């Protein structure tokens, strides 16, 4: 089992560079911390609005040979077993523009999943990193500008699901994932080739693992 570590100089305690949002407006995002605070981020009526910085990304070694860990991630503390989900809205314009959900133990053990612009279209994308990163993509047939992601971690298994309406949740990925005493999970966005992707995150939920059958899509 891996013990999660938090590096104090990379996890800023504020919602944005100018300090905490108020307790009233920050709910339900209270308790989260930034990894790589963007220059522009604020919470309005429970909606988390983030604008990406230039060259932000999460990747580790595979194919390209480089490691990048400067993407934007707002990590909410989660126990060893959980389900988390959120809604993501964004307009993707440039190669590798991406937004979605991230589950993280440390810089070498994490997953990110959501929509990523690749080869001229919005793709359903997931990167699982266990020492090194992999990358899986598939065309997304619903509206990529407005969708939900769900991540469940339970007993060393990761289950990723996507939804177009918040009601039906097809499987994106089922994979082994390192066991840990606790995790960080929350919204993630990056723009490796530019800056200025505006993303809205909302409908955040964190609970015990749902425990549904694999083909139960509710």
Key structural traits:
UCP022704; 51% strand; 7-stranded antiparallel beta sheet; Jelly Rolls; mainly beta; ConA-like_dom_sf; DUF1349; DUF1349 domain-containing protein; 218 residues
How would you summarize the topology of this molecule?
Blueprint: E1 11-12, H1 23-26, E2 33-35, E3 40-44, E4 47-51, E5 58-60, E6 67-69, E7 72-78, E8 82-90, E9 98-106, E10 109-118, E11 121-130, E12 132-133, E13 136-139, E14 146-154, E15 157-163, E16 171-176, E17 183-190, E18 198-207
Antiparallel strand pairs: 1-2, 2-7, 3-4, 4-18, 5-6, 7-17, 8-14, 8-18, 9-10, 9-17, 10-11, 11-12, 11-13, 14-15, 15-16
Short description:
The protein is an all-beta fold.
Number of DSSP strands? 18
* First-residue to last-residue Cα separation: 30 Å
User: Rg to the nearest angstrom?
Assistant: 16 Å
Q: At the third CATH level, what is the topology name? A: Jelly Rolls
Encode the helix/strand succession as letters.
Answer: EHEEEEEEEEEEEEEEEEE
The percent range for strand residues is over 45%
CATH architecture: Sandwich
Give the low-confidence spans: 5-14, 16-24
Reported for the largest beta sheet, the result is:
9 strands, antiparallel
The overall number of domains is 1
CATH C-level class: Mainly Beta
Helix content: under 10%
Q: Supply the helix-strand structural class.
A: mainly beta
CA-based shape: globular
Number of helices: 1
> Averaged pLDDT, please?
91
Describe the 3D structure:
This protein is an all-beta fold and 218 residues long. The chain has a single domain (11-207), classed as Jelly Rolls. Helix content is 2%, strand content 51%. The protein contains one helix and 18 strands. The strands form three sheets. Strands 1, 2, 7, 9, 10, 11, 12, 13 and 17 form a nine-stranded antiparallel beta sheet that branches. A seven-stranded antiparallel beta sheet has the order 3-4-18-8-14-15-16, with no helix packed on it. Strands 5-6 form a two-stranded antiparallel ribbon. A hairpin with a 1-residue loop joins strand 11 and strand 12. The longest helix has 4 residues, at 23-26.
